Amino acid sequence: MKRYRNGEIWDFEHEVAVASNRQVILGLDGGTTSTVCICMPIMPFSDTLPDPLPVLARAVAGCSNHNSVGETAARETLEQVMADALSKSGSNRSAVRAVCLAVSGVNHPTDEQRILTWLRDIFPSHVKLYVRNDAVAALASGTMGKLHGCVLIAGTGTIAYGFTEDGREARAAGAGPVLGDWGSGYGIAALALTAVIRAHDGRGPHTMLESTILQTLGLSSADELIGKFIFSSLTVSETSQKWFGSVTKWTYADPSWARIAALVPVVVSCAEAGDEVANKILKEAVQELALSVKAVVQRLGLCGEDEKNSFPLVMVGGVLEANQRWDIGREVMDFISKDYPGALPIRPKVEPAVGAALLAWNDLMKECLQEAYRS
Amino acid sequence: MKRYRNGEIWDFEHEVAVASNRQVILGLDGGTTSTVCICMPIMPFSDTLPDPLPVLARAVAGCSNHNSVGETAARETLEQVMADALSKSGSNRSAVRAVCLAVSGVNHPTDEQRILTWLRDIFPSHVKLYVRNDAVAALASGTMGKLHGCVLIAGTGTIAYGFTEDGREARAAGAGPVLGDWGSGYGIAALALTAVIRAHDGRGPHTMLESTILQTLGLSSADELIGKFIFSSLTVSETSQKWFGSVTKWTYADPSWARIAALVPVVVSCAEAGDEVANKILKEAVQELALSVKAVVQRLGLCGEDEKNSFPLVMVGGVLEANQRWDIGREVMDFISKDYPGALPIRPKVEPAVGAALLAWNDLMKECLQEAYRS
């Protein structure tokens, strides 16, 4: 992506001939691999949204990872992707009514406040600004902007996030790999790798996962999985092993969780071929994922007192989308339905950045209606 | 530690008046937090070793972590600690008969070869050089240099390593935190942290661990444990959370496994106070640790055909040494004894660097005897 020098990001605004007085909303989904910004027009009040949704422009920027590109570049990437979306849609900042930036890790009002302060520097004061956790945008991408129900995300990581119609919220899991996100793609794959090591050193039963995973990774022995962090109470190996070179070891060679999570399809194929160990790993993952949803539903009382009320259950992420014979998403849904027959599964048809835009639109409409009632 | 410029490390050799023609052995235990070198005199042939062992000098250097200090400095640290030990003992390199460098992560002949090549540059060609996995030095620290039996190390990480008298070897676990070292200090503490999160978000039962761990860490809520790597299929939070500052989160703030493992005593105290969750975590850890030993014993046939042969079982590491009412080491031993009544528990009285020196001494004696027989 072309990088503008500071201050030049918004230069296009002097050149663009703004088509009309059409007002727009920006929805952003900010991640490490890519950053997406959607520009939508303000839609008229209505009970049903137009289908397809009128998306004016979609801009994608690369990594906005502060660790990779530094803080200045990360902020610039987000600012740039908003400018790109506006420029592509033939708009400029004066047309913007609301911005919703959905980023994971927003769990505290302090997180929200820092981002809001920075966004406030870019947009005029009448622009409504919303900063939400990315899980909220995922829920909105399934409910078309309405904050009601529960979303279950199971990709590399996993989180369940829920809202009641009166604005209470709750979450479960989403605590990362160390803290028991056991149904995540990472969790499933890490258990599969562990099963390979345990079969190899005699602690666990033989499993088809051993040959299949080693073949997938192009390794000749389970020893090669063992990383440079082999540690004991006495010494820590990363020093010596890194220092003295040594064979390339797979597991810890690249600490990216996603790289490990990418092994999930291998686990599914072994389970489909009848491997007991792989089947057990997937069954436990299903229970873990269902448990996260149940914890949220229970705490919020989404199912009502008789546990039969209906509520949307938005399901997203690679682990739930695998459309294979061993269908993790369907199994999770079956588990949840037993306790909460009112859970209505939804697979979002739009991406989270659109969910973010719809969140902003929904809130904006509510405020407008309230103002209309007051006046 | 004072750093010498290249080549000056061995300058002391010109100044030291070598006391006698006494020959010495160096034993090294190289780690990330510290590096220990022991200088011992060659002891006479004997069935029993002198008690206490005649240690001429002990030198300690700081971190030899290549990641922290760079490759050149890491090598220099090891070279320096050997020079210090020799200098303190009033010896120089011409007095050295053998060097044993014990470093974890030495799992392949290629690892060994790289280190040997570098050691060969420092010492004259008649000096015997041995490079071993640190677990082997731990075993030798319990068996006084004899490679027979099994060692179980359970500190931050865990590994079981065994040798038969005819030189076969086997290991189990030691694969690091991702690959199922579940009985390690890190494993125990990670499960305790997970239990706190699960109690907090409604996925798990209430546990005393919640208040105790939060109090120990000076945190006000379990939310503060959740780190900056909260991830989903949609976006990865480390970017945004790091970038926008946010509350200090504990778990991922410092990726050191040892920092997490330091919570083991808290888990033990909760278990002693009757907490079910903490008790379950420790009981499972005991089974895991016992399983590692059993896997090694089984593969090597250390227990003989009737499973009653006696063999040394060396137990080291903070997890096994906790001398509390809930004694993990004793429980592990009880578990192992049920299957292998011949397992003889040993708590080493000397440190691994001494174990390394004894390994070198033992091998040296064997070679001398063989030469004596041949001539």
* Total discrete domains of chain A: 2
**CATH level-3 fold name of the largest domain in chain A:** Nucleotidyltransferase, domain 5
Give the tally of β-strands of chain A: 10
Number of helices of chain A: 14
CATH H-level name of the largest domain in chain A... which superfamily? ATPase, nucleotide binding domain
Distance between the termini of chain A: 47 Å
Shape of chain A: globular
The largest contact between protein chains, plus residue counts on each side, is:
A-B, 98 and 97 residues
Beta-strand proportion of chain A: 15-25%
- Secondary structure: helix percent of chain A: 40-55%
CATH hierarchy, class of the largest domain in chain A: Alpha Beta
What radius of gyration of chain A results from the CA coordinates? Answer: 23 Å
* Uncertain spans of chain A: 1-5, 228-249
* Main sheet specs of chain A: 5 strands, mixed
Describe this structure as you would to a colleague.
Chains A, B: Pfam families: BcrAD_BadFG. Chains A, B: One of its GO terms (molecular function) is glucosamine kinase activity. Chains A, B: Its EC number is 2.7.1.59. Chains A, B: This is N-acetyl-D-glucosamine kinase. 2 copies of one chain form a homodimer. The radius of gyration of chain A is 23 Å and the shape is globular. In chain A, the strands form 2 sheets. In chain A, strands 3-2-1-4-5 form a 5-stranded mixed beta sheet, sandwiched between helices. A 5-stranded mixed beta sheet of chain A has the order 8-7-6-9-10, sandwiched between helices. In chain A, strand 7 and strand 8 (about 170-175) form a beta hairpin. The first copy, chain A, has helices spanning about 10-15, 65-70, 70-90, 110-120, 135-145, 185-200, 210-215, 235-245, 255-260, 265-270, 275-300, 320, 330-340, 350-375; strands at about 25-30, 35-40, 55-60, 95-105, 130, 150-155, 160-165, 170-175, 310-315, 345. The first copy, chain A, has 2 domains: about 10-145 and about 350-375, 2-Layer Sandwich (Nucleotidyltransferase, domain 5), CATH 3.30.420.40; about 150-345, Nucleotidyltransferase, domain 5 (2-Layer Sandwich). Helix content of chain A is about 45%, strand content about 15%. In chain A, helix 11 (about 275-300) packs across helix 13 (about 330-340).
